[in-house]
Protein: Acetyl-CoA acetyltransferase
Organism: Nocardioides soli
Amino acid sequence: MRKVFVAGVHMTRFAKMPEETVRTMAEAVVAGALADAGVGPDQVGATYFGNAISGVITGQEMVRGQSALRNTGVLGGPVFNVENACSSSSSAFNLAWQTVASGQADVVLVVGAEKMTEPSGLRAMQALESAVDLEEVDVLKSRLGERADGDRSFFMDLYAGTARGYLERTGATAADFAQVSVKNHLHSSLNPHAQFRKTTTVEEVLASRTIVDPLTLLMCSAIGDGAAAVVLCAEDRLQTDRDRIEVLASVVTSGYARQETAFEDSAVVRAAARAYDLAGVGPEDLQLVELHDAAAPAELVLYEELGLCPRGDGAKLLASGATTLGGRLPVNTSGGLLGKGHPVGATGCAQITEIAEQMWGRAGDRQVPDVRLALAENGGGYIGSDSAAAVVTILSR
């Protein structure tokens, strides 16, 4: 296996953009990432296209990548379409990394693109609800108890159940969840690509509309559109003289589909442990983390699953200021899913883009000094009582 490097990145802004399509956004990020890497489309040996819900939103169920990329110059070579719920483009990144590492191609393009907004406002919810085993959906809904059918995705009920369990287990409060949103909106206010550019307060988060107790509107990621792209290449194909960003590890796991998942068996815990082992580092070595805060409580849970703090101490880590810009381990400097936005198929590539921008010193007002080791965690779907997919990537400069 040979070394693999991030050669270029690019992303659109994340927002509700009715004028954009998956194709227009994909074209923009492909052109931007290739230019950033200093390579042409004719040099791309393979392309991996991450998209989660176009089959429902636009009806483009098959050949999504070929359709979106037909005007970019990369067709002719292999195009692989990757769907893995919210972790679609991070899963695509994993496959692209394997392709370069194994010597099958020297330059590989990864694209994540998602169009979630549409006139009815209902299709995105329907699409997201397909990220579970539909043969088990009635059982899942019965476990959740009463819910207001039609006014929200039952993923919010899943997140709320996790939140209530976390409150009972740790003694944290809803104000701690609110503080996650405050932190990430502070970070997104400094990110020109972010969907939400305004700061907020704990009081405003708690006072926003209740989605399902204890989650309020500002504790939940929103519907949006966007795309991001990453170019990976072998060491001898790097075209720029800037610092090299090596992919030390990329690990994908799935949940075991058990009704009760032990902490140490969770998809994220297992992915993180394997990634740390492959990279030869530990959580104490990290200087930056981008993680999957689809709802605010998830960030505190993930602090613990990633080994950033002892189990039960997620709220304490947040309160210490360590994960805020200026702290010892900033988390979600992009604004995360809560602030930057979450066009689901694009999120994985956007996380890698944020880390690369930080490592290359291009993050502007949210720049973290001298980032040399960083981790991205991206989850997708739900199986049993766990994520259906979890992807952990470790990058080094």
